[in-house]
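Hello,

Following up on my earlier ticket. Below are the two sequence lines again, exactly as submitted.
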Amino acid sequence: MNAMGWALADGWTVMRRNLTHLRHSPGEMVGVLISPVIMIVIFGYIFGSAIPVPGGGNYREFLMPGLFAMGATAAVMVTIARVAADNGKGVMDRYRSMPMARSAVPFGHTGADLVVGAVGMAIMAIAGLIVGWRVHNGLWSTLAGFGVLLLFTYAFNWLGVLLGLLVRNEETADRLTPLFFPVTMLSNTFVPTEGMPSWLRTIAEWNPVSALVAACRQLFGNPGAPVSDVWPLTHPVAATILWSLLLLAVVVPLATHRYRIAGRR
Amino acid sequence: MVDSIVVAEGLHKRFGTTEALRSLDLRVTEGTVCGVLGPNGAGKTTAVRVLCTLLVPDQGSASIAGRDVVRDADGVRKLIGLAGQHAAVDEKLTGRENLVMFGRLYHLGERRAQARADELLERFDLTDAAGRLVRGYSGGMRRRLDLIASLITAPPVLFLDEPTTGLDPRSRNEIWSSVRELVAGGTTVVLTTQYLDEADRLADDIAVVDHGRVIASDSPERLKAVIGSRLDVVVSTVDDTPAAAAALARLTGNEPTVDGTTVSAAVHERAVSLLTAVREMDAAGVAAVDVALREPSLDEVFLALTGKPAEEEVAA
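Thanks for your patience. The regenerated structure is below:
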């Protein structure tokens, strides 16, 4: 096998290891399993009762693409915590003293976390269907919607690897969590951007999360099409794919480099 | 000169204001055990981390079987195994899952990784615990699993960083016998330790490390001969200590130290034994409660080699 092949094989081994952790401690999955339900109750029924959907329609149909996008963004937190926790452990020293591919550990982390993200998204979709969310544009469009969500999730998993290596320990990783809520809130996730003050509205419209939410609404055929003429919102699918690829192009080399040199100086 | 499989020359490493290594030199002959002996913070772990490619030295060079640890790190990684004080195994996996995972990462292939795991678990008596999560292992079992994990590919050079620190005597003995078994198989072992008796029992050569450099390097026998054994005499009352000290000084030719009712002196001559000590005390009219001839402690080794007690630095 060539170097690339071994790198993939090693990444697969580390990914299986992370998934085995979850099999042994299913408790760690509880958050992933129940948070969608909590989100739907809080936003769909509590806040949603007071929020009108632009152009009419069911708020919960408007909300679900936002919750999917929130799940995709939260991927960064899942990965930061896991990478930061792993990095302090002796097992990382053993990995580094072995002749394995240097990129295997970050690829394994992101691979496993993508699987976790997909499971979370499936549960979110089932919960959504129960409360009246529907897809309206047929199979391919629906699959494209989830494809875009997973691409975005994967990019954020990689961002999580980089940040997890930078923060160095679990405690700091935990303290970062609240900082990610504004990122999802400052967007069209829960409310239309039209009512925001203009400076805030500009930030929200250029927020990649807004493009993702708009892309999902478009592909799933859910209400709340943006009445904005900024490019990311008039071409939400292309914009989301570009944002994700751009993030991956920047973060993957940085994170693998960071992993390679971590602890060596 | 005999070929050295592990060579370190003039290693320097600084962490902030702490100089962990100050021109450390080390040579280890193939097929022998080198005991790197020193107090906490002397630079033992830093030296091992440089030799295992985990740290890049600020100055100096090191090689394993002629491969440079910085320029050919991957080449070195194929030759070494590392086990240490921070048991480097995955707590959230079972013992067997750990070994199979490491086997896969050593590219043994699925079937051989499984077979090798079972073989090692059996050989090191961990078969019963193989299916349990490492989280629930005792300290000794973890260390043993860690040691096994470094043996998957039967590497020619094995680094053991304080393998028995914090272990109970029984677990210590188990690790010791495992190490002896490996050495019998031809593995070169570099072992760091804070315990003189551990280095004495396992090592062919001892390098004493203090403040980031090797201050003495010799066989345990010659090192001990230089330092000498210690003769302890315990007397019943403090009033007897001057007479006991005088008698010990006559017998050993060395200046005794007094601690409470214990009088102690270095012994360099073989002619001095428990019997001659008891006779000397009798002749001096000292009622000795206990007389013992023992190995010097690490503190006494340091006192003999540096003229000052071993002091602990903040571990880097």
